[in-house]
Design brief:
alpha+beta, about 15% strand, five-stranded mixed sheet, about 150 residues
């Protein structure tokens, strides 16, 4: 066991865990932030995406040893009032069906919009590649990202 200190959603925390414990389990089980979902556990689906120092990462395959001293942002920390342009666009475009993948999709899209203020459709598709939506709402996801870019 090791004590690992880091910042999550602008709050300093420390947890006693094995260094190879996945960040996902610390977020969900230790810190009780359940917006980040477990999908595949293999880094393939994207449901567990969070930001680590501003970069979108799959928390199911990010070990706590990689998190020490860094800043983590989950869907709960993206916007304190749930009024991030992506969150509003997701609602306006009626993206969610089951909703399971949505927090990871939004976190991946937030990374894109932080880098590119007005991405093209092709840049969106390329950046979002690897995120699986079981309900197949990909056209709505693209529209929501384009809308958020316009309204931001």
């Amino acid at each position: 066991m090791a004590t690992i200190a880091f910042t999550i959603n602008s709050k300093a925390v420390s947890v006693d865990v094995e260094p190879d414990t996945p960040l996902l389990w610390v977020v969900r089980e230790h810190l009780k932030l359940t917006g980040t979902k477990f999908g595949c556990g293999s880094k393939w689906c994207g449901a567990c995406t969070v930001h680590l120092n501003g970069k979108a990462v799959r928390s199911c395959q990010t070990h706590m040893s990689q998190v020490k001293g860094k800043k983590v942002t989950t869907i709960e920390g993206l916007s304190p009032n749930n009024n991030h342009p992506l969150q509003k666009a997701w609602i306006a475009e009626q993206v969610p069906q089951c909703g399971y993948c949505q927090s990871g999709q939004i976190m991946q899209a937030a990374e894109l919009l932080a880098k590119l203020k007005t991405p093209t459709r092709e840049e969106i598709v390329d950046h979002m590649d690897g995120h699986i939506c079981r309900c197949g709402t990909y056209p709505r996801i693209i529209r929501a990202i384009l809308r958020a870019a316009e309204e931001a």
